[in-house]
């Protein structure tokens, strides 16, 4: 086997699920240029029937996939099949609550449209490196708890509501504050936690059991 052949066999395999032909072609070109071996599908059902995720390094899926299964369904189906492949989902701004559901189901990361190429590649490489570590373990992760202690009580309330999948307007109504104040709290939370994306906020919150606090009245 030549060096070139060996390189081809060791290229990380990415399974792409995207129902929009133009977007699918764009993602394929980008991933191919970055040295990934791409296997793409227009719907989740066909991908699952082909068992394409078995042995893949990462699954990249749009959250909304036409009339069939969506990204959350796909993540849940992969977990039911016992496949530990990390999943990155792509979502529109208005679908952030659905993206939170995807992460609760086991997705590793999510990106909001419009997706910048460098952000997409970084997210995929990070997902491959981290693997399919659970986002929400059965018990809070001790290392995550001190990070939440930096937050004021109101900021914890806002963070809990956002991670629960509520839109800013809903959070504002629930807490009796304005949507602009919710945005201010969100920015402060990200600054105190020293994070750069909402997906990171979700990961920290789930790891720290912040939704369990809500369930227990804490």
Label this structure with key terms.
alpha/beta, Arc Repressor Mutant, subunit A, 12 helices, single chain, disordered N terminus, 218 residues
Per-chain topology:
Blueprint: H1 3-9, E1 13-17, H2 21-33, E2 37-41, H3 44-49, E3 58-62, H4 71-80, E4 87-91, H5 96-105, E5 109-112, H6 117-130, H7 145-148, H8 153-163, H9 168-175, H10 179-193, H11 198-207, H12 210-215
Parallel strand pairs: 1-2, 1-3, 3-4, 4-5
Helix pairs in contact: 4-5, 8-10, 8-11, 9-10
Task: Describe the protein's architecture and organization.
With 218 residues, the chain is of the alpha/beta class. The protein folds into 2 domains: 3-130, Response regulator (Rossmann fold, 3-Layer(aba) Sandwich); 142-215, Winged helix-like DNA-binding domain superfamily/Winged helix DNA-binding domain (Arc Repressor Mutant, subunit A, Orthogonal Bundle). The chain contains 12 helices and 5 strands. The chain has a 5-stranded parallel β-sheet with strand order 2-1-3-4-5, sandwiched between helices. The longest helix has 15 residues, at 179-193. The chain is elongated. 33% of the residues are buried. The model is unreliable at 1-9 (pLDDT under 50).
pLDDT < 50 stretches: 1-9
Number of strands: 5
User: Total domains, how many?
Assistant: 2
Q: Would you give the CATH topology of the largest domain? A: Rossmann fold
Q: What structural class do helix, strand and pairing data support?
A: alpha/beta
CATH class of the largest domain: Alpha Beta
What is the CATH superfamily label of the largest domain?
Response regulator
Question: Mean pLDDT, rounded to whole units?
Answer: 85
Q: Percent range for helical residues?
A: 40-55%
Helix segment count? 12
Task: Write out the strand line-up for the largest beta sheet, numbering strands in chain order.
Answer: 2-1-3-4-5
Biggest β-sheet description: 5 strands, parallel
CATH arch. level architecture of the largest domain: 3-Layer(aba) Sandwich
Residues in β-strands, percent: 5-15%
Q: Gap between N and C termini, in Å?
A: 60 Å
Using the CA coordinates, give the radius of gyration.
18 Å
H/E order of the elements?
A: HEHEHEHEHEHHHHHHH
- Gross morphology is elongated
